[in-house]
Amino acid sequence: MKTVSAILPAYNEEQFLPSVLANIEPYVDEIIVVDGGPNGASTDKTAEIAKACDKVKYFSNTFETETGGWDIGGQRNMALEHVTGDIMVVLSADMIIDNIELFRAALEEDYDVFAVNLIEFWVDMKHIRVDSMDTGYDILSTPSSNYKVIAVNSECDKFFDENGTLQIEDVEFDKVLYVSQAAVFHFGWIRPFKQQVAKHIRHIKMGAWGEEGAKLARGPHKDLEKWAIRHALTYRDCQYLEFYGKLPDCAEGLGDIRFDYGCNAVITDFEKKYGEKVLNYTHKKRSKNDK
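Now predict its structure.
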């Protein structure tokens, strides 16, 4: 039977990490948690939660780019150095594998790369993100496929680029297996509002949004912070689909997470710090969790 290593980059993941570890722990031989961001290791209970799992090998460091962003590639490449299993499973600390028993069985097949369906929750845990519906037609149009490579033979030549994307060299297409009945559930877009804002600030510092992003990165941090808050609020204006299905049992502890949890507190803190309004209207609470 093949041995399996899971790599899990993390930073302040106390909300999701218990569910993620419960999901993968029975099916892998080791879990390599690399904890850190631009300011060093997590400041919440991430390390404590990770170290409590017998299969976890915990490492921490500071991962900062020259522009002050998050060196995501460096963080993942550090995890790569510690892999000992025959197969490497690549996850984030906000991802859960659905139908993981089938996925683990598929890893025994003679393939080098393994892909599953990707489902990204959007706004809350009852809706999923749709990449694009702007087709010019009055019909619903979605991409023909939405999958994610999450496992690779450890002997393959591979590395993570500066965006944290796994790059695999010289892989033949007939050595890639698509496990159609398994899926990765990604909860990154429904984190509390403060984390959403921090994510967009990080993306700008890493070169996202072209010239507009470059201008924001060069300007005062106040303007970048305001833009990030406004951008996160546009989530409600995007198109998304209702999710009809059952989450794995390990997700029950996540509760009813929403992206706008703490939204008003973030706006209030900004306005007190800078003495100016974020919006031209009074933001209204959208849920009982929005404080």
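Residues 193-205 form the longest helix (13 residues).
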